[in-house]
Amino acid sequence: MDDVLRVFVGSSNEPLAEEICAGLKLPLSRLEISRFSNDNLFVQVQENVRERDVFVVQSFTEPVSDHIMELFIILDALRSASARRITAVVPYYSYARSDKKDAPRISITGRLIADLLATAGANRVLTMDLHADQVHGFFNVPVDHLTAIPIIAEHFRQKLDLSNCVAVATDAGGAKRVQQFSHRLGVPMAFVLKRRISDEKVAQGLVVGEVAGKDAIIFEDEIAAGSTLIKSVQTLTEAGAKRIYAGATHGVLCGPAVQRLSETPVEEIVVTNTVRVPEEKRIEKLTVLSIAPLFAEAIRRIHTGESVGELFTVSNP
To answer: What's the whole-model pTM score?
Structure first.
């Protein structure tokens, strides 16, 4: 790989960055991150990046605010060090859930973070499966928006007899995403009517579509506390679904999610490593797929000026 390319990582997901670098046949570039006695962050770039094409990998995971601030400081340090182009690689952009003003006197934080990334020094953003498509438009710099749908779909294609399967969205808002997933698998789709009461409480009822006697594959962009998934499983079971599987790009698995999911009658839950899943959360029914090869190829294409979109059009069935 061209010596002009550099890949750095913050503290949110170093194993993913190491896999990406292995795919690029590059060493992970050196960065010192520490804290002063007053808890202020200190970042020092420990390699020459002058006129280099630089990529910084950082997911917005717990502690989210710390990781976001860390990324801002890394970007600013790289800009000060005269990097030619800086791409913020954010596999999981958690504030994409804050995409609209649905209550009085609140911030549309997804847009705010997008503005701050550019202010800190990002010339470009590479991300994956944003919660809402309109977040793409929040950025004033170019954005490459990847999806894990082909990777997760291929996992289920190899594992299941798809002749009796249906892909399920957990609400009408996710229907477009699940339509892509169902098309990739060549199966029909359905969705569950959902009403969110609070961050961890969801009320659900009817299923739109035929699921009785079928193997249902629930697909979401993320699994956080797991409340939506669990309610969807209950609704599908009551509607007569035979076996239930679940897939999501981002396995956030916060709070009581792991305990809840271990008790719910789901055959398998498939996520990717956009979020680092520690060993204590890797229950038997959880499968974690790597999206590092996809990010590595996207980074290579951005660096060489090739199309990133062709990653998804070439392999369409």
So the answer is: 0.93
pLDDT digits (tens, 9 = 90+) for 8-56: 999 999 999 999 999 999 999 999 999 999 999 999 999 999 999 999 9
Catalytic residue selected from 176, 194, 201, 281 = 194
Residues of the chain with CATH 3.40.50.2020: 5-147+292-313, 149-289
Alpha-helical (H) ranges within 3-108 are 14-24, 64-80
CB 124 within 8 A of CB 144: yes
Q: What is the sign, positive or negative, of the torsion defined by CA atoms of 242, 245, 246, 251?
A: positive
SS3 of 43, please? strand
Assess contact for 75 and 111: CB atoms under 8 A: no
Write the secondary structure of 132-146 as one string of H (helix), E (strand) and C (coil): CHHHHHHCCCCEEEE
DSSP state letters, 161-209 = -GGGEEEEESSGGGHHHHHHHHHHHT--EEEEEEEEEETTEEEEEEEES
**Cα distance between the two ends of the chain:** 31
For the CA atoms of 6, 9, 14, 17, the dihedral, rounded to the nearest 10 degrees, stands at: -40
**Contact call for residues 94 and 124 (beta carbons, < 8 A):** no
Beta strands, E only, 233-303:
244-251, 269-272, 286-289
Structure-block tokens of residue 67? 């990781």
Q: Does domain 149-289 have CATH number 3.40.50.2020?
A: yes
Examine the residue annotation and report whether 242 is marked as an active-site residue of this protein: no
Sign of the CA dihedral with 12 first, then 52, 25, and 146 last? positive
Per-residue model confidence as pLDDT tens digits over 237-278: 999 999 999 999 999 999 999 999 999 999 999 999 999 999
Class of domain 5-147+292-313: alpha beta
Does residue 63 have a cis peptide bond before it, meaning omega lies within 30 degrees of 0? yes
Structure-block tokens of residue 177: 């995403």
